[in-house]
Design a protein that fits this description.
The protein is of the alpha+beta class. It has five helices and eleven strands, in the order βααβββαββββααβββ.
Length: 210
């Protein structure tokens, strides 16, 4: 896709390597949640933006190509409100709800909330949630299976896919998995839509654990 000039009411910016619509919406419009607007304006379909020329087409941008944005978007400050970008939820410890000394539910917000959400997704087996059958990470299903390093690589791929499924994550770097006995240790770096590098790591066996 190319533009010789910006249309009335719109402006154009260049996409970047590793970009996502969420990252662009956060960077240029101040709100990652507005990424569907970009998909509609530019008539894009998943994966929307790619670094692979073989996947680029009329409805998938190749990174580096321009993308149209509304001119009414506020100037980018490079900083978005963490609460609105990453949300707020009930704090959990090993899957159990935390409470304050006063007996109220303890909350987690901002990047800490995203970290909790990513860890929860990794520790959940697909199919565990009745109305969200696709939610979770199948890496733990590889525990005890023959395959050695091949299974480690497959588990790392599952980890990356699970983290990327969260719209607050722009990309995933250096996913690893190490299956030992009846457990598995996974690590990765989730790059958030506002460019923060969030290390995510945990050990899992047949129970929700750190």
């Amino acid at each position: 896709m190319s533009f010789t000039k910006a249309l009335n009411g719109y402006r154009r910016v260049a996409t970047r390597v590793g970009d996502s619509l969420q990252a662009i919406a956060a960077r240029e419009m101040g709100d990652a949640a507005r990424w569907p607007d970009l998909a509609q304006i530019n008539n894009l379909m998943p994966p929307y933006i790619t670094d692979d020329p073989a996947l680029a087409g009329s409805q998938v941008l190749l990174s580096g190509a321009p993308i149209m944005l509304p001119t009414a978007a506020p100037p980018s400050t490079g900083v978005a409100d963490a609460h609105s970008m990453f949300g707020c939820d009930i704090a959990l410890t090993n899957g159990r709800i935390e409470v304050t000394d006063g007996g109220d539910l303890r909350l987690t917000e901002g990047v800490a909330n995203l970290n909790q959400a990513l860890r929860h997704a990794l520790a959940t087996d697909p199919g565990d949630l009745l109305f969200h059958q696709g939610y979770g990470c199948p890496a733990r299903t590889l525990i005890g299976r023959p395959g050695g390093e091949v299974n480690n690589q497959l588990a790392a791929m599952f980890v990356a896919r699970t983290l990327r499924a969260d719209p607050r994550v722009a990309r995933v770097e250096n996913p690893t998995a190490d299956i030992q006995g009846d457990g598995i240790a996974v690590t990765a770096t989730a790059v958030t839509v506002d460019g923060q590098h969030l290390p995510v790591g945990m050990g899992m066996n047949n129970a929700f654990s750190d």
